[in-house]
Design goal:
Elements (H helix, E strand, L loop, with lengths): L14 H9 L5 H5 L5 E4 L14 E15 L6 E9 L2 E8 L13 E9 L6 E9 H10 L4 E4 L8 H13 L12 H6 L5 H9 L4 H31 L10 H9 L7 H15 L5 E6 L5 H13 L12 E5 L3 H14 L7 E5 L2 E5 L9 E3 L1 H9 L5 E4 L13 E7 L6 H8 L7 E6 L5 H7 L4 E5 L10 E4 L5 H13 L3 E5 L19 H12 L5 E4 L5 H12 L5 E4 L12 E7 L6 H8 L10 E5 L5 H12 L3 H11 L7 H5 L3 H6 L3 H17 L7 H16 L1
Parallel strand pairs: 4-6, 8-15, 8-16, 9-13, 9-14, 10-13, 14-15, 17-22, 18-20, 18-21, 19-20, 21-22
Antiparallel strand pairs: 1-7, 2-3, 2-5, 3-4, 5-6, 10-11, 11-12
Helix pairs in contact: 6-7, 7-23, 7-24, 9-10, 14-23, 18-20
Length: 711
């Protein structure tokens, strides 16, 4: 395997330099070698300043002029500004949150600047360019004769040039000569992949772009393969575990389904059949239920819950099995609590709600049609002795104090990595593992689902209940905002309500210059009230409000005491107000297509015609093309595939959101690669479930887990 000794053993580092490397996630030699380039530059590929066009990624060579540190006029963000001049002209250069740069490059110094051309004609500038001094350029020509050279992600105190030389020193030291490859040689040959040592050299010092492409393919395959190994081993472990046999009386289930507000769609009926079959098997179910907003996931979950609470514990002719239903937010948890009360009003059972701000029980002793606030201690007592068969809540559900008597089913909303150990933690006293039904309204690309949730059986709800009309979506062009407001006014006069979504709450994002133009919740609410809709009631909702404040705002909106709710994307998941039929999304290009789809799902809650207005801040070709997909795609699944293809891997927030690197996210565009890695993992686990014959793969899985924990 790769050397894991500390980077400080090989390089003389100041405390500040070491801290900067740690910020990049580089503490060992292995970390350095896995700090992959963000792009490659070709020597001699410099552009002429006079010919620059906005949007280009360019490299120019010129002299530095008038660099100085200052603060933004409105934002007060510290920055450096100045110019770079060549024989054809000069261009402004600008760095945000990097005032120290002004002291590093005196007037007249010759530099090589690489960055993105930003701004409009006549006001172009290079945003946050990477600079190299002329002396460094000469050294580079002497020391690195390759045509292509790597450009790395940087931080203050660690330049791309330093990283290039550091990697070169490690490679020249011979550290890669004894590296063992965790991928079997036969597998590498089958898919024409380079060995680990070769791939690392090609990644950092490619002779041409084919080398770099081959190296990326190898690391993408390896990452997807390791994830699949984890998932298939999890599947195998679960197949040998015992769970509860949920076998409810058929008449009880038939009565419950008949009493639903609408007849199940074919997709819902198919999902219900699959779930009930899983829970009858005696082995833990692991199923992901994916469906657009409004497709009826909660109703399917309610049928699964009914089957569970209608089943007696083994060896008993009294009591019931129990259900835990976990939601990501208090708003959504309370919403599910109220939905379940309606689902079970014809066959009342005790339903509990536990969140960070309080506990509730239905029905109340004083009024069988109402729920009541109860003490946490009392709720926990009734859950522990089995008197409350259904408990709904936030992450408060998995606290040590929450003890179930016979927990047979765990339903998770919008949290898919809920593995065996977490289920054991919930069950606590039980030797049997509860069944898991995970649900999501987030459209997931097929390759992502195959990779990250390979241990879950996937069920799609791909049809909507009858009577639901498709949302009419419009991308608002410049000059048509007034027309949009008039359309909204007509709907408000008909008694409907609207959401207005803004990218930020009030303060600008200090790391992104374009955030200064983004509309904020607080200011937009004031503007709408004073200049556009003075006759209507307007309120705000955002993530910095307390749970109690959020609940109060949503309650007023649900009672139609508020006509227009101005909010951040906090309303993206789960908010349910059927009378709200319009949503305006400001700065629409800042959101992914899948997130935009979820946001507009807030207004698909009734049979009224719904409207979505996407209002971008910019109207470039890329923005227009991407948002057009929002108006043409048939469903969220199609949008998810387009989102994956259109957006860069970094924009998909790989490691942060999914536990997968940018290279891994890029690989998800390649279905054949994902399916090949999945097949290889499945076959290997079937032959060698404990990986006894593959110790290097075992170590690679351990390293991956440790790296994810570090991040």
């Amino acid at each position: 395997m790769l050397p894991t000794d500390a980077i400080s053993r090989h390089f003389k580092l100041s405390e500040a330099h070491q801290a900067a490397l740690t910020k990049l996630g580089i503490q060992t030699v292995r970390d350095l070698l896995y700090h992959f380039p963000s792009r490659y530059e070709q020597a001699g590929g410099e552009a002429s300043i006079a010919n620059l066009v906005s949007g280009q990624e360019v490299t120019v060579i010129g002299t530095v002029e008038k660099l100085k540190a200052k603060k933004g006029w409105k934002s007060r963000i510290p920055m450096t500004e100045g110019f770079i001049r060549d024989a054809s002209g000069r261009i402004q250069v600008r760095w945000f949150n990097q005032p120290y740069i002004a002291k590093m490059y005196p007037d007249g110094m010759v530099v090589r600047a690489t960055g993105k051309v930003t701004g409009s004609a006549g006001k172009l500038y290079l945003a946050n360019p990477e600079l190299q001094r002329a002396g460094d350029l000469l050294q580079q020509v002497d020391e690195q004769p390759t045509e292509f050279f790597a450009v790395y992600p940087e931080t203050r105190g660690v330049t791309s040039l330093w990283l290039r030389h550091a990697v070169e020193k490690v490679i020249k030291s011979g550290a890669l000569s004894s590296v063992e490859d965790p991928l079997p040689a036969a597998m590498l040959k089958r898919y024409n992949l380079p060995t680990l040592a070769t791939a690392l050299v090609w990644m950092h010092q490619p002779q041409d772009l084919k080398d770099a492409t081959a190296a990326k393919k190898r690391f993408a395959f390896e990452e997807v393969f390791l994830i699949q190994l984890e998932r298939w081993r999890e599947r195998l472990r679960l197949a040998h575990e015992k769970s509860f046999v949920v076998d409810a009386p058929k008449e009880r289930l038939k009565d419950f389904v008949t009493a639903l507000p609408f007849a199940p769609t074919k997709a819902q009926a198919k999902a219900i059949d699959a779930i009930l079959a899983d829970m009858q098997s005696g082995h833990p179910m692991s199923r992901l239920l994916e469906g657009d907003v409004g497709s009826g996931k909660t109703a399917v979950a309610a049928v699964a819950a009914t089957a569970t609470v209608a089943t007696r514990p083994q060896g008993q002719n009294f009591g019931t099995l129990q259900v835990a239903y976990m939601a990501p937010t208090e708003i959504l948890a309370k919403q599910h609590f109220e939905s379940f009360i309606k689902f079970f009003d014809h066959a009342p059972i005790n339903i509990g709600l536990i969140t960070g701000s309080g506990c509730y029980k239905f029905p109340s002793k004083l009024n069988k049609d109402k729920f009541t606030n109860i003490s946490r201690a009392q709720l926990l007592k009734w859950v522990a002795n089995g008197e409350i068969p259904i408990l709904i809540g936030t992450h408060a559900l998995i606290q040590k104090s929450v003890q179930f008597k016979h927990l047979a089913l765990v339903i998770i909303d919008e949290q898919h990595r809920f593995g065996t150990n977490q289920r054991r933690k919930l069950a606590k006293k039980e030797s049997r593992i509860p069944h898991l039904l995970s649900m999501t309204a987030t459209p997931i690309p097929r390759t992502l689902a195959l990779t990250l949730w390979g241990d879950l059986d996937l069920t799609l709800l791909d049809e909507m209940p009858p009577g639901r009309k498709p949302v009419k979506t419009e991308v608002v062009k410049p000059g048509l905002r007034g027309s949009m407001y008039e359309k909204i006014r007509l709907e408000l006069k008909e008694g409907r309500q609207a959401y207005v979504i803004c990218p930020r709450i009030d303060e600008p994002d200090p790391d992104k210059e374009f955030a200064l133009q983004a509309k904020s919740v607080k200011e937009e609410a004031k503007r709408l009230k004073s200049k556009v809709f003075p006759e209507y009631e307007i309120d705000i909702l955002h993530s910095k409000m307390t749970p109690k404040e959020k609940d109060e705002v949503m309650a007023r909106f649900a009672r139609h005491e508020v006509d227009i709710l101005v909010a951040t994307s906090v309303v993206e998941v789960g908010v349910n107000v059927p009378n709200a039929t319009m949503i305006v999304i400001e700065g629409a290009e800042r959101f992914g297509l899948s997130q935009l789809h979820q946001l507009r799902g807030r207004v698909v809650r009734s049979t009224h015609q719904a409207y979505c207005y996407a209002v971008p801040e910019s109207h470039g070709e890329a923005t227009v093309a991407r948002l057009k997909a929002l108006t043409t795609a048939k469903n969220g699944f199609e949008l998810a595939e387009q989102d994956l293809l259109q957006r860069g891997p970094g924009m998909l927030s790989g490691s942060k959101q999914w536990g997968i690197s940018d290279i891994g996210m890029e690989a998800l565009k390649n279905l054949k690669l994902v399916e090949a890695a999945r097949t290889e993992a499945q076959q290997l686990v079937q032959k060698d479930p404990e990986l006894k014959g593959h110790p290097l793969l075992t170590q690679a899985l351990t390293d991956r887990t440790a790296q994810l924990h570090f991040e």
